[in-house]
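*** Protein under study ***
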Amino acid sequence: MSELPGEPLSRRDRVRADTLREIRQTARRVLVDQGVDGLALRAVAREMGMTAPALYRYFDSREDLVEHVVADLYDELIDDLAAVRDATDPATPGARLISVSRAFRGWATAHHAEFGLLFGSAGERVLAPDDQRGPGERPPQVAGRRFGGVFGELVAQIYLERGFPVPDEADLDPALQEQLRAWCAKLPVSLPLGVMHVFLSCWIRLYGMVCMEVFGHLRFALDDAGPMFESELQALSAVLGVADEYRPPAEQRP
């Protein structure tokens, strides 16, 4: 008999949930210790003292396990960003966006292997192509949309409360307009295409800066990418009309 909503889980279900959680946590340790290429069911099973076939009672495939690890990592990152956002003082969208951007870089630089699985090309190698999966959204897609929403919601709030310069829709390339319009159709709040263009441009700069630092692509010029990140963050604050809310890290309130 299935459990009714609100009823406590049976002992069997609790044991299964604990085992699922342990498998995902072990898979993350394997990822950190051995890299993406070492993230195999056999390696995870060995760490847990199980046989690889036994893992198939909990996950259908290696890809299924990796997808759940990815979703867990997104949840951790989102929780970290949300905690920083909610603790920011003053609690304005601009100040929060600056704090969240710093927190994103902080998580990324402290979790190289995890960041590579979430955002790097290496992670794509461990996931099966879309045409080899069943219909419907998968855990990483749902979690990834939530991650994007942390930044998107703050930029939308800045625009709605303060506004910032945006290009006229007619000045955008028709092919770009079409893609931005399709993206906007998926969002809960309707915004001008120019706003989405600015948001996407800012995100490319912020995300690109973090990726280049994490993957070592700035070492040709920078031993410490922190000051360059702050320079970009200050410039993006000006683009979004919140330059007056930017403060160097040393000047942040305790």
Summary: Confidence is low (pLDDT under 50) at residues 1-5. The longest helix spans residues 62-87. The chain has two domains: 11-59, 61-129+138-245. The radius of gyration is 21 Å.
